[in-house]
Model the fold of this input.
Amino acid sequence: MSTAPMTREQAIDELVWANRILVNENVLDGFGHVSVRDPERADRFLIARSMAPALVTAADVLGCDLDGTVHDAQGRRTYMERFIHSEIYRARPDVLAVVHSHSPALIPFGVTGARLRPICHMSSFLGSLTPVFEIRLSGGESTDMLVRNAALGRALADTLGPHPVALMRGHGGVAVGVSLPQAVFRAVYTESNARLQAQAMALGAVEYLSAGESGAATETNNGQLDRPWQLWKQRLVEAGRAP
Ligand code: MN
Done:
């Protein structure tokens, strides 16, 4: 994968692919969103206007600041839950891409005492703790479950802490990364880990990756992120759904 600094135009192109990949790989559906930090100014991020991610084109991408204000909106609005992105970018200078999904296999792990843990090497990045965001702690008993303001976004970013993934009770989760391919990889493999872990738990006691195995496997996987990214792009081309 190229390590050359990206232009804004390149980031927008990659963001369009990321939107469509996440739908094609069953992480997003009509809902959920993905963003990338603006490579030309760290206090802004790029995200689609409020729309179904499968339909996003470069013309739909907006620039948003860390207060959640869209610039050069031209009448367009972005997602109500943009504060998920703005507050994570504010809290985590290392994060350059964020995925928020309602990916279905995550839900059981957000609403029970069962903790999501790495069941195989591809999801080793989960490590020993995936935190769960409890919106009631900051939003009270009667929210509509959406992270619709900066205070809720801050609370979610606090829960995420230094981790790559946080679950959101009764809602979904967030996955972050140092690039779109890494954040997308983490979103896809968090969903698959949750599905496999639930299957394994139904069979019996589960042997998870150790901390040492998780660390070593993650280092290996981080060198391979371009491979699935190229595959996921090719699947879109073959399906006739490439941008
Ligand atoms: Mn949501």
About this structure: Residues 8-227 form a domain with the L-fuculose-1-phosphate Aldolase fold (CATH 3.40.225.10). The first helix runs from residue 8 to 24. The two ends are 20 Å apart (CA to CA). Residues 3 and 179 are 10 Å apart (CA to CA).
